[in-house]
Amino acid sequence: MPIYAYKCDACGHAKDVLQKMSDAPLTDCPACGAPKFNKQLTAPGFQLKGTGWYATDFKGGGAAAVPAAAGTAADAVATPASAAGGDTAAPAATASAAGCAASCACH
């Protein structure tokens, strides 16, 4: 079951509540009783443990996880922009876009 963060707009009381996704949201503040108790938007938190993909593919820096052809294409795209004195963020965006087809949804 997910944990939802709630905060009262009237008194500022905040509380984390363990609820089913199908449960109706809470509306009444447990501290002041006002009907101003609203769900807050929060980032999910999780941790991967064990001998999964992190320990085998990315823990040592990820060099072994990148295929040689993909690294070469990224270097080829990044070299002209960096040699011309361009922004260092632009080659990364160009390199990621180089792997996409012209009809993809990201362009």
Automatic annotation (TrEMBL):
Pfam families: Zn_ribbon_8 (PF09723). Residues 1-42 form the Putative regulatory protein FmdB zinc ribbon domain. Coiled coil: none annotated. PANTHER family: CONSERVED SERINE RICH PROTEIN (PTHR34404:SF2), REGULATORY PROTEIN, FMDB FAMILY (PTHR34404). This is FmdB family transcriptional regulator.
